[in-house]
């Protein structure tokens, strides 16, 4: 079973246009409408109301009391831009998202193998994370590199600020905003709309998977994390293509973000010595081992989904 066979929505004669419009609608919701609504929702959580909100715009990490309002703004923006608007968009386009995106549960084994391959792929991707972070531009592109480095440093500072937890409640809120909502929403947009519509339009599935992954990574505007995020997008893309059910890449995305956040919290609490944010460089041997294990699990996953392709869809199952 794959999305070329089971998720071709009826009546969509312009899938490329649908994909482009769906992406634009999501971006509008995430960058404009969502933050506006989120800012209003966050007002009661500012100690000094609107004056704090004005200061937040100038220095988001300047006051620890800004953390909860920031999570609310980010969470509402993601919920509206990545889930509500894309879902309504597909519904208006008569795409029947509940049926076309979730035709059949991947089963317990499918869920387990998906979580496992994400864990092993983290070991592979650690190499690309370190490599991409150390890339340098040619001399004539130094102004662009300086801008990209400054932007990366600002995002890293914001991430550290948001993931330094003062309470379990903050961790739970962060987990929902950073792991749960993006796991659902980003996969709905980039795999459920962009990748699926590219394939429906006749584009080679492999090209569609890579193109959707490139767009997925580029949207984050983080050059020094572009390659590892793109590779994650490729992994999620193939998981969706093989399984035909969006729950698979959603779970994969959630596990990736959730594990990272969980390790951060566990280290802060003193439960583990491993610091995922400042870990040592991966050895070549460890990367090769993780690569071999990941390849084996991917082969097993592909065969597992192929064995299920002849089964009748079971709608409504988890």
From TrEMBL:
<keyword id="KW-0645">Protease</keyword>
<feature type="transmembrane region" description="Helical">
    <location>
        <begin position="111"/>
        <end position="129"/>
    </location>
</feature>
<feature type="transmembrane region" description="Helical">
    <location>
        <begin position="171"/>
        <end position="190"/>
    </location>
</feature>
<feature type="transmembrane region" description="Helical">
    <location>
        <begin position="21"/>
        <end position="46"/>
    </location>
</feature>
<dbReference type="InterPro" id="IPR003675">
    <property type="entry name" value="Rce1/LyrA-like_dom"/>
</dbReference>
<feature type="transmembrane region" description="Helical">
    <location>
        <begin position="254"/>
        <end position="271"/>
    </location>
</feature>
<feature type="transmembrane region" description="Helical">
    <location>
        <begin position="66"/>
        <end position="90"/>
    </location>
</feature>
<protein>
    <submittedName>
        <fullName>CPBP family intramembrane metalloprotease</fullName>
    </submittedName>
</protein>
<feature type="transmembrane region" description="Helical">
    <location>
        <begin position="226"/>
        <end position="242"/>
    </location>
</feature>
<keyword id="KW-0378">Hydrolase</keyword>
<keyword id="KW-0472">Membrane</keyword>
<feature type="transmembrane region" description="Helical">
    <location>
        <begin position="202"/>
        <end position="220"/>
    </location>
</feature>
<dbReference type="GO" id="GO:0008237">
    <property type="term" value="F:metallopeptidase activity"/>
</dbReference>
<keyword id="KW-0812">Transmembrane</keyword>
<keyword id="KW-0482">Metalloprotease</keyword>
<feature type="transmembrane region" description="Helical">
    <location>
        <begin position="283"/>
        <end position="301"/>
    </location>
</feature>
<dbReference type="GO" id="GO:0080120">
    <property type="term" value="P:CAAX-box protein maturation"/>
</dbReference>
<feature type="domain" description="CAAX prenyl protease 2/Lysostaphin resistance protein A-like">
    <location>
        <begin position="170"/>
        <end position="258"/>
    </location>
</feature>
<dbReference type="Pfam" id="PF02517">
    <property type="entry name" value="Rce1-like"/>
</dbReference>
<dbReference type="GO" id="GO:0004175">
    <property type="term" value="F:endopeptidase activity"/>
</dbReference>
<keyword id="KW-1133">Transmembrane helix</keyword>
């Amino acid at each position: 079973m794959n999305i070329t066979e089971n998720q071709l929505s009826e009546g969509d004669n312009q899938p490329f246009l649908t994909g482009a419009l769906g992406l634009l609608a999501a971006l509008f919701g995430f960058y404009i409408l969502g933050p506006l609504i989120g800012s209003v929702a966050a007002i009661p959580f500012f100690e000094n109301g609107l004056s704090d909100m004005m200061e937040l715009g100038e220095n988001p990490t300047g006051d620890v009391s800004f953390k909860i309002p920031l999570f609310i703004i980010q969470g509402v923006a993601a919920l509206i831009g990545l889930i509500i608007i894309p879902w309504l968009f597909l519904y208006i386009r008569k795409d029947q998202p509940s049926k076309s995106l979730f035709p059949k549960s991947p089963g317990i084994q499918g869920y387990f193998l998906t979580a496992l391959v994400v864990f092993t792929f983290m070991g592979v991707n650690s190499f690309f994370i370190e490599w991409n972070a150390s890339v340098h531009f040619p001399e004539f592109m130094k102004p662009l590199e300086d801008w990209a480095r400054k932007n990366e440093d600002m995002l890293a500072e914001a991430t550290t600020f948001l993931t330094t937890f003062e309470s379990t409640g903050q961790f739970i809120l962060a987990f929902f905003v950073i792991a749960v909502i993006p796991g659902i929403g980003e996969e709905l947009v980039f795999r459920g709309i962009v990748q699926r519509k590219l394939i429906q339009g006749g584009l080679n599935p492999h090209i569609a998977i890579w193109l959707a992954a490139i767009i997925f990574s580029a949207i984050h505007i983080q050059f020094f994390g572009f390659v590892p995020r793109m590779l994650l997008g490729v992994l999620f893309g193939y998981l969706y293509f093989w399984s035909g059910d969006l729950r698979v890449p959603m779970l994969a995305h959630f596990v990736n973000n959730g594990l990272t956040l969980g390790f951060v919290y566990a280290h802060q609490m003193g439960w583990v010595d491993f610091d995922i944010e400042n870990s040592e460089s991966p050895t070549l041997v460890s990367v090769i081992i993780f690569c071999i294990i990941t390849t084996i699990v991917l082969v097993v996953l592909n065969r597992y989904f192929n064995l299920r392709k002849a089964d009748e869809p079971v709608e409504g199952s988890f």
